[in-house]
Amino acid sequence: MILGPVEEELAKARAAYRDRGRWGDEDALGTLNFVDDAIRAHAASLVRRGRSFSLAQGIDEYRPRAATRWHGLGRSHDTGRAWHGSSRATTDDGDSVTGIGDLRGACTGRGVLLDVGRAVGDARGELPDGFPVLEEHLRDTVEAQGATSSVRRGDIVLVRTGQLGRVRRLGAWDGYAAGDAPGLSFTTLGWLHHTEIAAIATDTWGLEVRPPEFTEPVSSPLHRIAVPHMGLPLGEMWDLETLAEDCAADGVYEFLLVAAPLPVTGAAGSPVNPIAVK
């Protein structure tokens, strides 16, 4: 899929998917505001077997800089503005407006796995590098997986492409960080917005498809809309392999998810050890 001129598409997306001001001028949670006490209580009720899954990659010399992480609301800017319209607030002391520490108690709720790799990928359950995950692929995955993967307001959605499993099998870590990758299409911004999910994470380095779907060079176009305009926290490099195997085995794709970032004051992002409990 090749999209139109970059600036034209970005301008349309800015107008269509804007949540700035929705929760007040000083808001630091963005779409995590959708998660309320009732949603967290329901998420806790999803625990049936007590099986716990860490969704974090290991950090070692074979995977330089490869830490499972949350991408905070101050990390991506567009037209010189960050979330809630402020100018870049990062100083020598860090991000004073939307630091990741503000999310320390907010990243708990109903997690939902959309295993797009298994639903529309190859026999190994993997999408090829450069594959753009479209809204139709997300909807097809929900239909294939059944009712427990229906996406609701306030969910934390996890999208498995299978790229991490392939990289781990082949030992191709250099390509994981810098090469082409499957990922969310720029065109999924409408789905991300109207579903009112709280956050989204994938098993890839940068969440969105690489290379981008434009004829002109552009850096992280989906990030430029999702973070500073929608206020949507993004998770990158999550290890979804073992969880996906369990979900495929028992047919249950919803779970309690606890994914608190490190409370580092002023940090733009944070490593995280997400825990899914079924």
Summarize the structure.
By secondary structure, the chain is an alpha/beta fold. The protein has helices at 6-16, 37-45, 116-120, 135-145, 163-170, 173-178, 189-194, 221-226, 241-250; strands at 52-54, 69-71, 90-91, 94-95, 108-114, 132-133, 156-159, 183-184, 199-202, 234-236, 254-258, 269-271, 275-277. The radius of gyration is 17 Å and the shape is globular.
Features:
278 residues; Glucose Oxidase, domain 1; nine-stranded mixed sheet; two-stranded antiparallel ribbon; 13 strands; 26% helix; globular
Q: What does it look like?
A:
It is a single chain. The chain has 278 residues and is an alpha/beta fold. It has helices at residues 6-16, 37-45, 116-120, 135-145, 163-170, 173-178, 189-194, 221-226, 241-250, and strands at 52-54, 69-71, 90-91, 94-95, 108-114, 132-133, 156-159, 183-184, 199-202, 234-236, 254-258, 269-271, 275-277. It has 9 helices and 13 strands. The strands form 3 sheets. The protein has a 9-stranded mixed β-sheet. Strand 3 (90-91) and strand 4 form a beta hairpin. The N and C termini lie far apart (37 Å).
- What number of domains? 1
- Approximately what portion of the residues adopt beta-strand conformation? 15-25%
Topology as a string of helices (H) and strands (E) = HHEEEEEHEHEHHEHEHEHEEE
CATH fold descriptor: Glucose Oxidase, domain 1
The helix content is: 25-40%
Principal-axes geometry comes out as: globular
Contiguous runs where pLDDT drops below 50 for at least 5 residues: none
Main sheet properties: 9 strands, mixed
Count up the helices. 9
Secondary structure category = alpha/beta
Ends: how far apart?
A: 37 Å
Number of E-state strands: 13
Report Rg.
17 Å
CATH architecture: 3-Layer(bba) Sandwich
Spatial strand arrangement across the major sheet: 1-13-11-5-7-9-10-2-12
CATH 4th-level superfamily = Putative cyclase
Taking all residues together, what is the mean pLDDT?
Answer: 91
Q: Tell me, what is the CATH class?
A: Alpha Beta
